[in-house]
């Protein structure tokens, strides 16, 4: 335990800048008695002047190792390109510095396992991951309902999340973006990690995956920007995950169907809960032909069969991210349970890897697939690009 978290931000871009701004503006939602920002690091020389302007007197580092060795920080958050998450995280944990890692935990499971093993070898340090959607009261409510059996046993879970429209200019802004060697993939590793995490957090891990993808649909890129995946949760329960970055109007709809009802989430704001008064199988088995005819004619009284309730949720900008930071600090200082333990970060990475591997092989693959085979095929794509070194 420490008296206070002395936080360093590595990467002063959009995300790092947003987190830093919570401290700059002295946002009252930040638990300042538990955490303070004490240093910023970025390898872009231009950021030094920006930090000096935004935070006069704030220690600035252009090398993250110098930050870790400075003695100024006892915790860091990493807002850097995906392939740097694991190396920086390991370097921090080995020095006894607490880690709040940005999503995804890494690009492929073999490297994330190394990060998790390092955390286990240094139990005095905290490893958390920035899954801010787990703080969303809507998804907390859905998880609560599923754990309480409000809609019975899972039968089907479908998430249609296509609200990630990205024009070509987005991909042109950096030579590492939308590459196998620089970013590690497309929509699955960049835009959709939160949903890949939530799907498993709420519904459980699938056993098998079959996916079809389009690479560079309407864009001059080589990675996936359109994904259609089928999930097998076992015991007859199935699911699907559909996402893309080329749908200008986009849809966000999660539907979870169970033996006793259904949960529908629309636009990550509104939840509709339908609960059957008896299990569906019992209603089916005991329905007389007279009632079947009423069903066909639209004369059946739905109120006798199920109830429907709707809940809407709103959050102020920054609530989710600040809650993650506060929880991270509270865990370090007070021992509060983590909302998103770092070891759980591998789940979404494994699912994304399984989807890639399924499409590359043209067959269904196990969720717990061969991680060596995945890395081998990823490296083949990195070699074809010819821009970056292969990974180990």
TrEMBL record:
Pfam families: GFO_IDH_MocA (PF01408), GFO_IDH_MocA_C3 (PF22725). SUPFAM superfamilies: Glyceraldehyde-3-phosphate dehydrogenase-like, C-terminal domain, NAD(P)-binding Rossmann-fold domains. GO terms for molecular function: nucleotide binding. InterPro entries: Gfo/Idh/MocA-like_OxRdtase_N (IPR000683), Gfo/Idh/MocA_Oxidoreductase (IPR052515), GFO_IDH_MocA-like_dom (IPR055170), NAD(P)-bd_dom_sf (IPR036291). Coiled coil: none annotated. Residues 6-125 form the Gfo/Idh/MocA-like oxidoreductase N-terminal domain. It comes from the Bacteria. Gene3D superfamilies: Dihydrodipicolinate Reductase, domain 2, NAD(P)-binding Rossmann-like Domain. This is Gfo/Idh/MocA family oxidoreductase. Residues 139-263 form the GFO/IDH/MocA-like oxidoreductase domain.
């Amino acid at each position: 335990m420490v008296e206070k978290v002395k936080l360093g931000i590595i990467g002063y871009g959009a995300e790092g800048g947003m987190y830093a701004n919570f401290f700059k503006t002295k946002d009252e939602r930040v638990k300042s008695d538990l955490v303070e920002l004490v240093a910023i690091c970025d390898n872009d020389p231009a950021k030094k002047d920006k930090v000096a302007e935004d935070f006069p007197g704030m220690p600035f580092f252009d090398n993250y190792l110098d930050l870790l060795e400075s003695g100024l920080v006892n915790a860091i958050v990493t807002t850097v390109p995906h392939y740097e998450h694991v190396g920086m995280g390991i370097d921090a944990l080995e020095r006894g510095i607490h880690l709040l890692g940005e999503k995804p935990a890494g690009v492929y499971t073999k490297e994330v396992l190394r990060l998790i093993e390092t955390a286990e070898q240094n139990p005095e340090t905290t490893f958390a991951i920035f899954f801010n959607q787990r703080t969303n009261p809507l998804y907390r409510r859905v998880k609560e309902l599923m754990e309480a059996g409000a809609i019975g046993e899972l039968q089907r879970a479908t998430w249609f999340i296509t609200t990630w429209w990205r024009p070509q200019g987005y991909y042109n802004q950096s030579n590492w973006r939308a590459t196998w060697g620089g970013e590690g993939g497309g929509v699955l590793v960049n835009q959709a990690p939160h949903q890949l995490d939530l799907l498993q957090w709420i519904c459980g891990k699938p056993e098998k995956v079959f996916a079809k993808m389009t690479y560079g649909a309407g864009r001059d890129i080589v990675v996936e920007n359109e994904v259609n995946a089928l999930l097998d949760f076992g015991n007859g329960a199935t699911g699907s995950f559909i996402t893309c970055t080329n749908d200008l109007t986009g849809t966000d709809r999660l539907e979870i169907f169970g033996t006793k009802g259904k949960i529908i989430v629309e636009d990550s704001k509104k939840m509709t809960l339908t609960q059957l008064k008896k299990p569906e199988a019992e209603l089916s088995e005991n329905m007389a032909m007279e009632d079947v005819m009423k069903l066909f004619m639209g004369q059946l009284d739905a109120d006798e069969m199920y109830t429907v309730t709707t809940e809407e949720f709103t959050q102020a900008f920054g609530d989710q991210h600040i809650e993650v930071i506060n929880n991270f600090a509270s865990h370090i200082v007070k021992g509060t349970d983590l909302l998103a333990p770092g070891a759980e970060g591998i789940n979404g990475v494994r699912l994304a890897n399984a989807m890639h591997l399924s499409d590359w092989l043209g067959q269904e693959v196990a969720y717990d697939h061969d991680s060596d085979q995945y890395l081998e095929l990823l490296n083949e794509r990195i070699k074809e690009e010819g821009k970056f070194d292969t990974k180990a």
